[in-house]
Design a protein that fits this description.
The chain is 20% helix and 26% strand. The relative contact order is 0.21. The chain is an alpha+beta fold and 178 residues long. It has one domain. The strands form 3 sheets. A 5-stranded antiparallel β-sheet has the order 2-4-3-5-6. A two-stranded antiparallel ribbon has the order 1-9. Strands 7-8 form a two-stranded antiparallel ribbon. The longest helix is centred in the first third of the chain and has 10 residues. It is globular, with a radius of gyration of 16 Å. This is Zinc ribbon NADH pyrophosphatase domain-containing protein.
Length: 178
């Protein structure tokens, strides 16, 4: 499967500040998620920071963690926030977003998230519950969050592009193997 890889585009000061923080925990099964949530009980109520690494693996960190720390400073296939809920058969995903101002992934990163969740044996979603649309202004270069389909720069009022343009990205191949 071919997916977009997103580089970190956030402040360099944040990247430097978190360089020694632990990388997010790899979640490859429902059992690993259960162990991680038991070790981080606040995550059940607050949610988690997540990335999908270049191998297609879901990585989790406490919600107030920086995505770049969770990713170990590497490129990602997706990044955002996850909320889990306990069901009769285990954990499911209650909410998921692409909310990461460090990576600003396009909403088209959903297949990477779905693939990582499926590989980990998690269900509950067929798409983002909260999509964030990021665009960089072609005129002033500022990063914008597009709200209510209003593609106008909040800084200089120029029209924003219809297609994702935050930073150069590249296509990578991800296998179905865990």
């Amino acid at each position: 499967m071919e997916l977009e890889a997103y580089a970190y585009v956030g402040p360099e000061a944040i990247r430097r500040a978190v360089v020694s923080h632990p990388v997010g925990a790899s979640i490859r099964s429902a059992e690993e998620l259960d162990r991680w949530l038991h070790g981080h009980p606040e995550a059940v109520h607050e949610g988690t920071t997540y990335v999908v690494d270049l191998s297609g693996c879901l990585r989790l960190a406490p919600r107030r963690s920086e995505h770049v720390a969770c990713a170990g400073g590497e490129e990602v296939l997706a990044a955002g926030e996850l909320h889990f809920r306990r069901t009769a058969r285990g954990w499911d995903v209650a909410e998921v977003s692409n909310q990461s101002t460090g990576y600003c992934p396009d909403t088209s990163c959903w297949p990477a998230v779905a693939h990582a969740l499926s590989r980990a044996g998690l269900g509950g979603r067929t798409g983002f519950t909260h999509e964030i649309v990021f665009r960089r202004c072609s005129r002033c270069g500022e990063l914008n969050l597009v709200k209510e389909q209003w593609f106008v720069c909040a800084f200089c009022e120029a029209d924003l592009p219809a297609r994702w343009n935050v930073a150069p990205s590249r296509r990578v191949s991800v296998t179905d193997a865990p």
